[in-house]
Amino acid sequence: MKDLHSFGWYAARITPHLSKNLFKPVPARLWGGFAYLLVVVAGFMGIGYFDLHIVFNILIAGIIGASFAAMGFLGHEILHGTVVKTAWLRNFLGAVAFWPLSTGPRLWRKWHNMNHHVNTQHEEKDPDAWPNLEKLVQNSFLRVIYRMPFGLRAFFGFVSLSIQFTMHGLKMFFEYIKDFNPRNRPAVLLQTILPWSSWIGLLFWIGPVKWLFAFFIPLLIANFIVMSYISTNHRLNPLTPVNDPLANSLTVTVPKWVDVLHFNFSYHTEHHLFPSMSPKHYPLVKQHIKKMWPERYHEMKMSKAMKALWNTPRVYFKDNELIDPYKEARFGTLGNGLDKEKKTYKKSV
């Protein structure tokens, strides 16, 4: 990997072409979040107060789950300061938006804003980076997983998307709680406990069967939607010693109506260049990136990116390749052999 540049290097060259108004917060985005909140509450009430047919319960669960995911996308936006700037209001709104995913605003800003964004795809410092072969050898659990045949492993990998965000969030809590100032740790703990307490309270209110449809199934759906984006954001890209968003990030393309529902979360390379800009303006940023560095920019249809995830392993070999330890087959990453158009994945054995 040669000629890598930091996100600041790219941002400095695009910013002169952008209006200063694009960097102002956009509080109108909250109306979308309010609409999702009303949908969730209405879903809870419908399931809780009425003995509906299972078909209707499943349908409502799907709608609640999709709303959970969308609220998480808005929470991500809020906690980057692109919706409101006042700190206490930003944290409060971020907490509400992330409530379904049970992630507190202090933990999220530490884990995501400070560590992931600053150290994206760094094999040691990025909390979201997948392991290299050396780490796999040292981890007995991962060694067992990677002895499974490739197809079976891919299947379980996709199924696990339905729990990965929740499990990783809990891991991040135990990973980072010690890094907070002792005076702030009670707040971080409270922000983690309160959402889960409310969901347990919901269980006692409506009973276990209705709770499955009101919260548990929606949580699985929300996890899958959120992790489908997060998985395609970076997991097809190489590990990079320099935080170069054009090398280590992928923008996926989805229908316009999906971008509207998901607050433009698909524009991920753009987000890593300008995390403090509202995603509302990312289509404009994308135009400038493609004009200035068309050969470096990575974008792919969501369906193709998910297919590429299915067909490649998640263990890195020498940063810019992926390796399947089961058969010792190596696969290219984006910019290093993974061809987005020809759909070729395997590089060598």
Automatic annotation (TrEMBL):
For this protein, the record's Pfam families field holds:
FA_desaturase
Bilayer-crossing residues are: 30-50, 56-75, 87-108, 150-167, 188-206, 212-230
According to UniProt, the name of this protein is Acyl-CoA desaturase
| CDD domains named in the record | Delta6-FADS-like
Source organism per entry reads Fictibacillus fluitans
* EC numbers for this chain: 1.14.19.-
Q: Which residues form the Fatty acid desaturase domain?
A: 59-301
State if Membrane is listed as a keyword.
yes
What's a Gene Ontology MF term here?
A: oxidoreductase activity
What range does the record give for the signal peptide? none
Origin: domain of life: Bacteria
Keywords associated with the record: Membrane, Oxidoreductase, Transmembrane, Transmembrane helix
